[in-house]
Amino acid sequence: MVRAVVCRELGAPERLRLEEFPPRALKPGEVRVAIRAAGLNFPDVLMAAGEYQLKPELPFTPGVEAAGDVTEVGPEATGVAVGDKVIVKMRFGAFTDEAVVMPSQLTPKPSTFDYAEAATYLAGHGTAYHALIDRGRVEPGEVLLVHGAGGGVGLAAVEIGKMLGATVIATASSDEKLAIAKSRGADHLIRYDREPFRDAVKRITDGRGADVVFDPVGGQVFEDSMRCIAWGARLLVIGFTGGIGSARTNLLLIKGASVLGVRAGEAVRRNPALGEVRLKALVQWAEEGKLRPNVSHRLPLEDYAKAMRLLIDRKAIGRVALVMD
């Protein structure tokens, strides 16, 4: 029997259920993967609550990324073999022991990663890549302000921003989170509760402000960010864990600034060539040891609600993984 976390009614993580199903036969072109770990992302929480832009029909299984081993290859499925260690990309369905997918959804697992690291890599780092390279076009020497730098996507932005040659200012809610951000390349650290970040950014940049703002938080954080930007700044809207912010158009006009929405998955669906370049770069950087997700918590599949609460309560540092072994 195959275990899977199932959403039959929208709401809090505690409304989800762990259920068992018989494995289904493969259709032509499909591949069976034994899932060893699944990564958690904030959209999983929003999707289960019915608050995400993608709203699967009920019932469904949350989870957009996983890693495991190919155990069966169906007829007409090419480019993959039994025993391959892979990352699995999904729109939902990853919180399970076993996934049936298409070969196009698989990426070889970097040899430098364990399963939990592989399962928490592509969503966060892929979003950071798309934001900073495709949308923000960060240049060496620019100042990058990363909000929520203790979270999975924020920490990925710190890593990639530093690799691109930016001066990285990281903001977070605790010294522990900031210490991890510093270890991943952050040049300056700001704790939200010790100094208004907009004042700190002006102080750090001698009044000039940030060239690029990476914002997965939203709400008041987004609004205050507009008050500490440089001329021609790009504000990257990644998410809204802290609420929906309002853009003051007068501030954007005065600074010649741009607000750019970031949807890494949708961008690839509309332009697959973007995804090919991104994936190649991320796998190469992983193999070279330049990027690695920080997995602060590894919990068994049956603790899915507890794992999701770590994201809601912002207790994770980097990433959280469900492990099946």
TrEMBL record:
Enoyl reductase (ER) domain mapped to chain residues: 11-322
InterPro entries the record matches: ADH-like_C, ADH-like_N, ER, GroES-like_sf, NAD(P)-bd_dom_sf, Zn-ADH-like_protein
Database matches in SMART domains: PKS_ER (SM00829)
A Pfam family: ADH_N
Record-linked Gene3D superfamilies: Medium-chain alcohol dehydrogenases, catalytic domain, NAD(P)-binding Rossmann-like Domain
This protein's name: NADPH:quinone oxidoreductase family protein
